[in-house]
Amino acid sequence: MSDFVSDFWSLWVAGITLASVLGCGLFLWAVSIKRTNAKVETTGHKWDETLEEWNNPMPAWWSWLFYITVVFGLVYLSLFPGLGTFQGMLGWSSHGQYDDEMKVAKETYDPIFNKYLKQDLKTVAADPEARAMGQRLFLTYCSQCHGSDAGGARGFPNLADKDWLYGGAPETIEASITGGRAGVMPPWAPVLGDQGVKEVANYVLSLSGHKHDANLAAAGKPKFEQNCVACHMPTATGNPALGAPNLTDNVWLYGGTEAKVIETISKGRNGVMPSWKDFLGEAKIHLLAAYVYSLSEGK
């Protein structure tokens, strides 16, 4: 492993880079020398009987353009990183530039974000300017999964209605964004079997008034009570503490057809929302949570 971190490789890269640039300059000088023989040679290529390609030196202006390129390359390599571990005389780095830009951004925007951080989340949600800022944050970081209108998609909750897996209180929404969520439903096919899964699926469909087979639903009810109530509760109204959904409404995260419900029960589901604490920080999350809360407020 030490072979890959030794100074030799830095010198190797620097040597090859400089040799390549200087070699280009030397080659350019060699082909730019004016020929002294009276008769200019041809390359031997001939078309249409008399059309020949002559081996003349490049025009001076063209040669100088290449010389300028070589000189520019040497100057660039002396000022910026490019020769192994040599950082360049200016000391520039992409990481340093990023840090400088982030420092300027923090000095510019942190006072604005912190102003709202001191306010109650409901108060922030009622502020049009704060909601506009939260919407921009949402469109940048959240719309890829939840949609630009927050209407969700298959496997990604709708954030614009009143249905919440973990609860819709302001502090709960903020906690979801801050720490992320991991919702896991185990596969039940090994326990219930194919027929048992179908029976439970029909019972689940019956809870929300969906079209179902009454006989299968009746057979699935005791299986549901034996295996599913620990998470979804005896009333099947769900458990926000676990993120277990309410099965009595008409809201379906993965689809409400018999085939989709069977697939969910049979194979299980794994829903993950990442934590945004380290990336966004407390102040931005506060604005984002206020915007999400405002989407369903009053609905």
Automatic annotation (TrEMBL):
The keyword Cell inner membrane applies. It is found in: Cell inner membrane. Its cofactor is heme c. Heme c 1 binds at C142, C145, H146, M273. The chain crosses the membrane at residues 12-31, 61-80. Pathway: Energy metabolism; oxidative phosphorylation. Heme c 2 binds at M185, C228, C231, H232. One of its GO terms (cellular component) is plasma membrane. GO terms for biological process: oxidative phosphorylation; proton transmembrane transport. The keyword Transmembrane applies. SUPFAM superfamilies: Cytochrome c (SSF46626). Residues 129-208, 215-296 form the Cytochrome c domain. Binds 2 heme C groups per subunit. GO terms for molecular function: electron transfer activity; heme binding; iron ion binding; oxidoreductase activity. Keywords: Cell inner membrane, Cell membrane, Electron transport, Heme, Hydrogen ion transport, Ion transport, Iron, Membrane, Metal-binding, Oxidoreductase, Repeat, Respiratory chain, Transmembrane, Transmembrane helix, Transport. Belongs to the CcoP / FixP family. PANTHER family: CBB3-TYPE CYTOCHROME C OXIDASE SUBUNIT FIXP. C-type cytochrome. Part of the cbb3-type cytochrome c oxidase complex. Component of the cbb3-type cytochrome c oxidase. This is Cbb3-type cytochrome c oxidase subunit. It comes from Sulfurimicrobium lacus. The gene is ccoP.
